[in-house]
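Record type: ASSEMBLY
Status: queued
Input:
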Amino acid sequence: DQQVKQNSPSLSVQEGRISILNCDYTNSMFDYFLWYKKYPAEGPTFLISISSIKDKNEDGRFTVFLNKSAKHLSLHIVPSQPGDSAVYFCAASANYGGSQGNLIFGKGTKLSVKP
Amino acid sequence: EPEVTQTPSHQVTQMGQEVILRCVPISNHLYFYWYRQILGQKVEFLVSFYNNEISEKSEIFDDQFSVERPDGSNFTLKIRSTKLEDSAMYFCASIRGLGETQYFGPGTRLLVL
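Status: finished
Output:
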């Protein structure tokens, strides 16, 4: 039962280029979406989020796009830097209807940015 | 910047033993969570805790698991009788209110032999 899917287990990008990480979801009750970055042996670090009432949120080099009709979101990193190399997790939550905001994670995409 | 802390960073235990994993959430946060990540798999929700009681739990969180907030700062996860398949990274997270970002601790790596 994969409510949040990241179909690309890995992505390799040249430094300075754009990285695009994709995520699909199936539960229409999700109303809040987040991207986390994770290094080995560390906890997930929050990167950027978007509420279902928006279709875009930008923070510096990171932009998240949400397409509700397609149940799809993507994270754009421009320009990509070698320090961005990590596993990126897409996560979603349903903050209403009795849910207490627990996050459902995708399996992650390992991004490698090559100098 | 305030952060979620977890202890120990690593724990090795024998199958059938009890373990307690400890977390100190961010001080003004009200909702607390435990997640786990088995090696090579995704991060999975275990349980959420609010107002001194469990709000929600997943299928993984069976009666071998329990959570407690014994004082104003600690939030613990107890596994009563560990199994081999409990080996994983366990992450604690907290938020101030619903709709806000969850901040994660660095995790405890549990190895059950």
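Annotation: The mean pLDDT of chain A is 92.
Annotation: Chain A is about 0% helix and 50% strand.
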